[in-house]
UniProtKB/TrEMBL annotation:
Keywords, ordered alphabetically: Membrane, Transmembrane, Transmembrane helix
Keyword Transmembrane: yes
PANTHER family associated with the record: CONSERVED MEMBRANE PROTEIN (PTHR37814), MEMBRANE PROTEIN (PTHR37814:SF1)
Highest rank taxon of the organism: Bacteria
InterPro entries recorded: YkvI-like
Protein known as: Transporter
Transmembrane segments: 37-57, 86-110, 116-133, 145-163, 183-202, 214-237, 264-286, 298-316, 322-340
Length: 351
C-alpha cells in the first residue's frame, strides 16, 4: 500500500473514531435516533451517511482552504470574526462538558463491567490521555488506527451472530407510529450534533495533512464507514426489538450472549471508543486555548484534564442529560451554516 492510501485510511479511521463515542458504542444512540423508527431507519441511516460524507469533507476542505488551525478559525469563517469567536467560546464550554461526560462514561464502564472502582477508571483514562495528547495529532491518528479496526471486527461478529437468529429480518418489518417529520429530522440532528463536536479534531487534522485529496477521500471513506457501522448496529438491535429497549447498554446485552471472553473484549473496545472521542475533544480544546495563554502546552493539557476530572465527579447520567440537549441546539445552527457556506473562502490572517 502506498503512502497516500495509508494517509487516507488514517484520516478515515480518525474521523470514525472521533464520531464513535460512548452513546454509539453502547448502542443507545443508534436505538434512540434510528432503530425506534422501524423499517424507515435504514433509509434515515442512508441520509445520515450522506451528511457525514458531505459535511465531513466540507469541514476539512474549508479549514484547509482558510488556513484554519483550530475550530475557532473555522467558526470565524462561518459566522464572521465577532460572532465566530462567541460561538467558539460557547462550544469550548460544551466540549469541556462533553469531555467530562466521556471521562465519566469510562469510569462507569470500569465500575459496572470490569468491577474496578469508578475513580480507578477515571485516573487510568487521564494518564493514558496525557500520554497520547502530549504526542500530538499523529498519536491520535495512531490510536484510532488501532481502535477502529477492532470496532469493525466486533461489528462483523455481531452481524454474523444476528444473521443466524430467527428474527434477523426485523429491520425490514418493524413498524413505527412516529410522525414522518420526526423520523426524517432525527438523522439530521444526529449528524449535526456529531459533526459539530468532530470539528475539534477535523480542523487540526486538515492542518496536519498537506494533500487535499487525502482529506477528500479520507472524509468519504470515513463517512461511508460510519454509515456501515450505523447500519450494522441497527440490524443487530432490530433483531432484538422490542425487548432490547430496556437495557442501558443494548449492544452489551447482545455481546453477552457470545460468551464471557467476547463480552470482556467488547468492553475494552467500548472503552477505546470512549477514549478516542475524549482525546479528540481535549486536543481541539488545547489547540483553541493555546493562542490565548502563555502556558506550556503540557501544563495547559494537565489543567484541562484536571477540570474534566472534577466535573466527571457529577456522574455520567447527570452530565449526559444536562449537556447534550444544550450542545444539540448550537450544533443545529453550526450545521445550517456549514450547509450554506460556499467552498471558496479567504485565507485567514493570523496575528
Amino acid at each position: 500500500m502506498n503512502k497516500k492510501w495509508q494517509q487516507i485510511i488514517l484520516v478515515a479511521f480518525t474521523y470514525m473514531g472521533t464520531i464513535v463515542g460512548a452513546g454509539f458504542a453502547s448502542g443507545q444512540e443508534i436505538l434512540q435516533f434510528f432503530t425506534l423508527y422501524g423499517r424507515y431507519a435504514a433509509l434515515t441511516i442512508v441520509l445520515a451517511t450522506f451528511l457525514f460524507i458531505w459535511i465531513g469533507v466540507k469541514v476539512m476542505l474549508l479549514a484547509k482552504s482558510a488556513g484554519a488551525s483550530n475550530y475557532e478559525d473555522l467558526n470565524k469563517v462561518l459566522f464572521g470574526p465577532i460572532i465566530g469567536r462567541w460561538i467558539s467560546w460557547f462550544m469550548m464550554l460544551i466540549l469541556l462538558g462533553t469531555s467530562a461526560v466521556m471521562l465519566a462514561g469510562a469510569g462507569s464502564l470500569f465500575e459496572e463491567q470490569l468491577h474496578f472502582s469508578y475513580q480507578t477508571g477515571l485516573i487510568l483514562t487521564l494518564v493514558l490521555a496525557y500520554f497520547v495528547l502530549t504526542n500530538g495529532i499523529q498519536a491520535i491518528m495512531k490510536v484510532n488506527s488501532f481502535v477502529v479496526p477492532l470496532m469493525i471486527t466486533f461489528t462483523i461478529i455481531v452481524v454474523w451472530h444476528t444473521w443466524h437468529i430467527p428474527n434477523h429480518t426485523g429491520w425490514l418489518r418493524i413498524t413505527s407510529d412516529f410522525p414522518y417529520a420526526q423520523i426524517w429530522f432525527s438523522p439530521i440532528v444526529y449528524a449535526a450534533f456529531n459533526l459539530a463536536g468532530a470539528q475539534a479534531v477535523l480542523v487540526p487534522l486538515s492542518s496536519a495533512i498537506k494533500d487535499k485529496s487525502v482529506l477528500y477521500w479520507g472524509g468519504i471513506l470515513g463517512g461511508i464507514g460510519i454509515g456501515l457501522l450505523l447500519l450494522s448496529a441497527h440490524y443487530a438491535l432490530s433483531a432484538q426489538m422490542p425487548g432490547i429497549q430496556q437495557y442501558e447498554i443494548p449492544m452489551g446485552h447482545i455481546i453477552q450472549r457470545l460468551g464471557r471472553g467476547i463480552q470482556l473484549m467488547y468492553t475494552l473496545v467500548i472503552f477505546g471508543e470512549i477514549f478516542t472521542t475524549y482525546i479528540a475533544g481535549l486536543y481541539g480544546l488545547t489547540q483553541q486555548l493555546q493562542p490565548y495563554t502563555r502556558l506550556h502546552p503540557h501544563i495547559l493539557l494537565a489543567l484541562l484534564l484536571g477540570f474534566s476530572y472534577m466535573v466527571s465527579q457529577l456522574g455520567f447520567s447527570m452530565l449526559l442529560s444536562t449537556l447534550y440537549p444544550l450542545f444539540g441546539c448550537i450544533s443545529i445552527i453550526w450545521f445550517i451554516m456549514m450547509v450554506y457556506k460556499r467552498n471558496s473562502v479567504h485565507t485567514l490572517h493570523h496575528p
